[in-house]
Amino acid sequence: MEKDLAPITLISAGQSNMDGRVPVAELPADIQLPLADCHYCSNYTPDHDKGVFQPSLKTSDLSQERWGFDLVTYHNILQRTPYQGLYVIKCSEGGTSIDPTGDGDRHWTTHFDELASPDDSLLLAFTHLIKQCLAASRQHLDIKAMLWHQGEADRGSYSQAAADHYYDNLKAVFTYCRQLVDNATLPIICGTVSHHSEQYDPQVEKSMIQLASEDPNIHMIDMQNGTLLDAYHFDAKSAEFFGNQVFNCLIDQKIIEGKKLDLPAVKIY
């Protein structure tokens, strides 16, 4: 496809299924690393604290050489749309909750005062990352949307308080991220937790769906049937399916231009 539109930017965040758990050896056959024209800055890349983008997305830029659904989305944007390139600002870490009472040592909460240390805040890390990238690029980044996946670590079996507060907590995180990029209606594309996961929580899922149903710019992809490589994480088939559905959703919502993939229909809240 001829590339004639200026590069676009996505911000991405979440816990393990965003961080990626599928080995690079199980990438779809049509995806090759390094991913050319994917300018990439994440909490794993060199000099990310200075807002330095890698010129391409390499295996060494991933979390322990593992990939998540978002990599499939990036590939599709580069191969199937008219944009000259893609910039990605990503912060992810497995086993991290929103609520400070949830599972994990670090949290996405907007209630920074409830954390023992600023180092425990993933939102502050994401804030610094985005601000440094914007400063380094002199604000010349066209942020189109945010990709997100999280929820397992706020399950009621670990912390009932985290599950009870999930709706308010997630809403606050999304509001914060939109304020961070100065776009109160920034589109957010996300997905539910697989019902096969041992960390699936129906109360958390209900909160996700409620928030997406109320906000026309939150698009929650139903991943209840997602298959797993272990007790918690999407396998290669489901990660690819999820990433492809995210790509189609971006086009359906007119967030990006391009030709949709021919995929099975899935519920999007």
From TrEMBL:
Keyword Hydrolase: yes
Source superkingdom: Bacteria
GO molecular function, a single term: hydrolase activity
Residue ranges constituting the Sialate O-acetylesterase domain according to the UniProt record: 11-248
Keyword Translocase set for record: no
SUPFAM superfamilies: SGNH hydrolase (SSF52266)
Transmembrane segments: none
Gene3D superfamilies: SGNH hydrolase (3.40.50.1110)
InterPro entries per record: Carb_Esterase_6, SASA, SGNH_hydro_sf
Keywords: Hydrolase
Pfam families: SASA
PANTHER family named among the record's database cross-references: 9-O-ACETYL-N-ACETYLNEURAMINIC ACID DEACETYLASE-RELATED (PTHR31988:SF19), ESTERASE, PUTATIVE (DUF303)-RELATED (PTHR31988)
UniProt-recorded name of the protein: Sialate O-acetylesterase
Organism: Lacticaseibacillus zeae (Lactobacillus zeae)
